[in-house]
Amino acid sequence: MKRIALIGTGRIGTHHARTLAREVAGIELAVLADPASPTLERLAADLAVPAATRDPLSVAADDSIDAVVIASPTATHVELIEAFAAAGKDIFTEKPIALTVADAKRAIAATDAAGVVLQVGFNRRFAESWTRAEQLVAEGAVGRVQRLHSITRDPGPYGADPARVPAGTIFTETLIHDFDILNWFNAGSEPVDVYAVADALVRPDAKDTGFQDSAVVVIRYANGALATAEASFSAMYGYDLRGEVFGSAGMVQMGQLAATAARLYDAAGGHTGTAGTDTSRFHEAYRTEFQTFADVLHGADTDYPEGTDGLRAQLVATAAIRSAAEGRPVRIAEVDQ
Amino acid sequence: MKRIALIGTGRIGTHHARTLAREVAGIELAVLADPASPTLERLAADLAVPAATRDPLSVAADDSIDAVVIASPTATHVELIEAFAAAGKDIFTEKPIALTVADAKRAIAATDAAGVVLQVGFNRRFAESWTRAEQLVAEGAVGRVQRLHSITRDPGPYGADPARVPAGTIFTETLIHDFDILNWFNAGSEPVDVYAVADALVRPDAKDTGFQDSAVVVIRYANGALATAEASFSAMYGYDLRGEVFGSAGMVQMGQLAATAARLYDAAGGHTGTAGTDTSRFHEAYRTEFQTFADVLHGADTDYPEGTDGLRAQLVATAAIRSAAEGRPVRIAEVDQ
Amino acid sequence: MKRIALIGTGRIGTHHARTLAREVAGIELAVLADPASPTLERLAADLAVPAATRDPLSVAADDSIDAVVIASPTATHVELIEAFAAAGKDIFTEKPIALTVADAKRAIAATDAAGVVLQVGFNRRFAESWTRAEQLVAEGAVGRVQRLHSITRDPGPYGADPARVPAGTIFTETLIHDFDILNWFNAGSEPVDVYAVADALVRPDAKDTGFQDSAVVVIRYANGALATAEASFSAMYGYDLRGEVFGSAGMVQMGQLAATAARLYDAAGGHTGTAGTDTSRFHEAYRTEFQTFADVLHGADTDYPEGTDGLRAQLVATAAIRSAAEGRPVRIAEVDQ
Amino acid sequence: MKRIALIGTGRIGTHHARTLAREVAGIELAVLADPASPTLERLAADLAVPAATRDPLSVAADDSIDAVVIASPTATHVELIEAFAAAGKDIFTEKPIALTVADAKRAIAATDAAGVVLQVGFNRRFAESWTRAEQLVAEGAVGRVQRLHSITRDPGPYGADPARVPAGTIFTETLIHDFDILNWFNAGSEPVDVYAVADALVRPDAKDTGFQDSAVVVIRYANGALATAEASFSAMYGYDLRGEVFGSAGMVQMGQLAATAARLYDAAGGHTGTAGTDTSRFHEAYRTEFQTFADVLHGADTDYPEGTDGLRAQLVATAAIRSAAEGRPVRIAEVDQ
Questions:
Q1: Which chain C residues touch A142 with a CB distance below 8 Å?
Q2: CA-CA distance, C76 to C80, in Å (whole number)?
Q3: Which listed CATH number (3.90.76.10, 3.40.50.720, 3.40.50.2000, 3.30.360.10) goes with A124-281+305-335?
Q4: ipTM of the complex
Q5: CA-to-CA distance for B240 and C153, rounded, in angstroms?
Q6: Is the entire prediction scored with pTM above 0.90?
Q7: Does D57 touch chain A (CB under 8 A)?
């Protein structure tokens, strides 16, 4: 049994706490750490987690802790990763690894130096239709990969205040999933250049501030494959996550737009329900990514998204931000320094 | 070029006239015959059909005519078939062949004696997903056939006057298609017994008159296969024709519930259009069945629904009517006399 | 926190043990009871269940236990239910309640007399597309219910020894789910008569022994609705559970045939994976039915399949067995004594 | 009855000849013109077309001809259109209107000056799921349009000789359909700039010659909408034509990947057939576009793709070619001269 500390108990951190406490074999959620949550102790009690602390870094000094799960704000990641790596803790971090390419490299260097695990929270790799599709691509079912597409549309209506959304968010927090998926499916080839367009189409009133809620990205890979990614902050029909990989022998598609298989047919036609608007839709993928982390802690020889995968996706995001700003394709080499 | 006479220009006869006049290669629609239609001459003119007559039997005496298509009321079929067969005309007749098993046998005997073609209007055999499914079953894709199901639901709202619908109509005019499809898919085995239930569920107010708008039928075949057929006169979402064949190696399904592939997703979920409410949906199947008739007239060695197929379906319909009336399974042998 | 004892740790009992131990809030799995399992203690240790016993009835005398989950063979149910009811334990029992209608009535009478819960393990009611469909039907989305259909095909190849499968199994263990679903969807109306055909189509070599692996059932309800249910022990494409409810305003369908949304398109066409062959496919439904049981123990006013629902399904199964044996429709009243 | 001349009897011209001769009401196919076809007279005889000529321009002088359908090579279009317009003939031309933007403008100016119809052969506008989707978008079902996508993948294996495929073909002959569809769906807004990448991924051996068989295009519109189009010359699963329009209220999708609704389920999973590899798949769309042309000739007030639509798509194609060559986004204004 590995003892785990969870750092950060915001919305996604709380979801992770429940999953780690109840549904992952081989681990014990031993500490919750959050410097600011007013409900930290209540959450610990509800989940029978024996300890709670306001000082995340104190976990580094706790020899009884084997590994940490970092779900705190991105700005805190690099400092935490360096401290936990130095203390020999294995690390799971939410995406992105850090705010900048340079910081992501620092974090990776720290974990490499310490010889600890650094798993990045690309949960879509663990969603069942993506897992199955990747297996098909890896087996050669589509032949040589020529074309890839990945979509993330968050459920609407979009309710956040644009003024409180940092610049680049659509690339660093949303499309980073798509960039990782594209890199994963086109395994063995590196992104070469990136062209991105982004706009405030959901909230055109916020366009003047530089707010971006809609984006399209084109990525060219070294093997010639042409990839596209797209995102919107407001799909009124619920979560819309899809992917497609096309090659010399065929195509795989993944993702679906209805939460259940119930279909209604009436005088207005055929109807399915929406894909839903909460993260419970991805619960099984979250559970599987943490079970994988637990298995890795116990020595399993299993693939998982590593620090280098996080960096690769971050390079694409960084190039996309620059491309959207400058209106030209940007080479990965320009941002990889 | 074979010269064809069309007998009967009611609703379906008019549809057939247009198809025969314009879309079937190798034939010429030379005569329209209808004893009662006030618009017969207008239809002939519109379609450039050179002749029209009020006397269907006059076609038998016309040596320039090679074949006839019979789309007149069922009660007229047997007399027409006997006359045309005696005159050496090849014959396509709408289903059912006749009102009774005995009359159907007379009609078949007449065409056999004359050595002319008798094709029965089971157009569903020519609908593309049924054609493809039958090919799969014949190739062994589902293994030994164990279970079959066929559905016909006509589009609602049902508007006919129950008092003017003859008893047994749901079996002889609607489910006869399903009985033929089941026999066709379970080729090589004969129906043994039939259990049917029927009711006035669409028009419960007409139940007292014996009107039936909803029915379910169970058929056991000599090879053990268990088949079901069902029908309703009022599907509010449009035409619903489907089929399923299950066997030792797998299953095929056919039919679909949307007229087009356009899909809308909005805050209420996913939506497709209805399957439609007019026979244009089956136009391609009608066209193909007549092209097959034309090809057969020109000597093609092609499968088509023959008189014996029409009889086999009629035996099931007759047994079903008796079963529904008597509340017990009825053996085909009881009605085959 | 309610303390639960699980009776029976066979295949499905072991699955339930894991679910109850880890994934249901508000309960504690406190005892495992099985008179014969050689691995009982190991299972208890793995799941951190504090007690294990070879004597299921000893649970009745344990005042610390609030409720029991019965997953032992059907033949043991009635005695256990009577004992646990007398001891004031709330009861969840796997389906069917008992081997006979009379025993099912005894069990229900015992729980009624004791005022304890009797929830029956009709897990399909908790599968998400069935739940959603039932909600639509209850809201009137299909209008007056006229036609219902329910399918259960277990995954093949069928590997059990026909000689060890009790007569009637396809009705009492498999189709009982479908009978309950049909009753549930046609809520407020009672089944009136039943016609069933069954055969050994998967294992025709075992037909002489009376073995039945394939069945079709027609049920007429008091409100006129015509229902059908069907089952096979061997669907080579994996689990096939589907349902359909048709009414005066439309139709709902439920169930799906692919385990994931991944689709492959290649030179041979489009391909999805199978629906799978293990009960993990229904894990979420099992989890939800037990969470419902737990919620009911805590006083929630929630619908669940009760003893009377179990009896109603058993009456249909009993009538179906007789109908298949005697080749005639059987009224429910004939078997309800 | 309008008398029509067809110019060009190559592969698509022959298909059009059959459609025009047999399936379009209100017209008579009176002349076939082709300077080079060795089978011109045979085709005319087969279709009962009364006249055939080696001199397409002779049609301009034939006062009995009301309108022409141009299906000859693109290089010939502008001269033919100018001649036929000058002679007062209404014109249907295959896409693209001409080889260059300047020539397309000349052709449009000629038809404008003569006051004759110029319909462009964007048949996808007449394919039923596109027609239905456009209706939904026009009715506001997706709200404000924010994102559009259009796919054309021709069936593989690709068999043409790359050396005989002119530069830019993927943009001018294939993606021109997608550009028109995107413009049509985003009606009322003009394309502003275009970014395109293209490569020889199907035939990498031909890359050195500048051959392009795979392309992705990003188009920004004046209303902010972000559109993408993509094409491949070799989809091994058959024709793949799809579209998607996303907006503030929802999304519509169109196109499908199976030719029929027959589905097979076996031990390997679920299977549909391919989408097919011949133009018969689009026959109904071709028939409808010509029926529309015929209706317009008879004065119908019906929308159809006009010369300005052809020009708009050609401007996008021209910008895309330049963008792919220069590796930068290209403004429409740069190529509109």
A1: 264, 266
A2: 6
A3: 3.30.360.10
A4: 0.95
A5: 24
A6: yes
A7: no
